[in-house]
Design brief:
The chain has about 230 residues and is α/β, with parallel strands linked by helices. The protein has helices spanning about 10-25, 40-45, 65, 85-100, 115-120, 130-140, 140-150, 165-185, 185-195; strands at about 50-55, 75-80, 105-110, 200-205, 210-215. It has a five-stranded mixed sheet, sandwiched between helices. Bound molecules: zinc ion (ZN).
Length: about 230
């Protein structure tokens, strides 16, 4: 296995508990806005020690330091539309774990995701025109559309947006994203295998501001919502 260059400072459980507590404060309207002052900024000039790496959808409503009530140096973040794993994403998460000592990776999906809606549209009989780069980025979401559509419909392979639960598609894609991150990274998988890292998949609920965990790999005790 690849030994981590920087040992984790906290256990995955400690990292999760701190992270989840920040979201609890945000949900309750009791944000403390920690680590956002001049002292913290100065402290971090020559170093960073984030315990959590986050890979989420780019959606403007998922502003991570706000919804998890943390600040400078707390989260190492990579985001793209529909949280689609790419080499740069895998590399960013690996870097956070092996070089920065993060002990938790959070994959952050959300309800009412435009990328999921667009992937459903691309899976329909008459997909909207889009650019090649958008089409290629949405393609890894389409198996989740197909999986849910064909579970409930046998008359046509073309998905119908009015007859499919987009948030359920999002959760299938969330679980697939976690799997894909593990599949594409031996370094991440080894760290999980060694008990030094956990990967948690959450779907954020826009209305209440809560990141609900649906999937976990690694040593964290937490209450999971059912994926289906
Ligand atoms: Zn989204």
């Amino acid at each position: 296995m690849t030994p981590p260059h920087t040992a984790p400072r906290v256990t995955p459980q400690q990292a999760w508990d701190t992270f989840a507590a920040g979201n609890d404060r945000f949900v309750a309207g009791a944000s403390a806005h920690p680590n956002q002052n001049v002292e913290r900024r100065s402290e971090l000039v020559n170093t960073q020690t984030p315990d959590v790496a986050l890979f989420g959808c780019s959606d403007s409503r998922l502003a991570a330091e706000i919804i998890f009530d943390c600040g400078l140096g707390d989260l190492f973040i990579a985001r793209n539309m529909g949280h689609v794993v790419a080499e740069s994403i895998t590399a960013s998460m690996e870097y956070a774990v092996t070089e920065l000592g993060a002990s938790l990776i959070v994959v952050l999906a959300h309800d009412s995701c435009g990328a999921v809606a667009a992937a459903i549209d691309q899976s329909s009989r008459t997909p909207s025109e889009t650019t090649a780069s958008v089409q290629n980025t949405l393609a890894p979401i389409q198996p989740a559309v197909q999986q849910l559509w064909l579970r409930n419909n046998t008359d046509t392979p073309y998905a119908d947006a009015s007859k499919i639960d987009a948030n359920a598609v999002g959760r299938i894609h969330l679980a697939a994203t976690v799997n894909e991150l593990l599949r594409t990274s031996r370094a991440i998988s080894d760290a999980v295998d060694a008990g030094k890292l956990a990967v948690v998949g959450c779907q954020y609920r826009l209305t209440e501001g809560r990141a609900v965990p649906y999937t976990v790999v690694g040593p964290v005790e937490l209450e999971l919502a059912p994926l289906d």
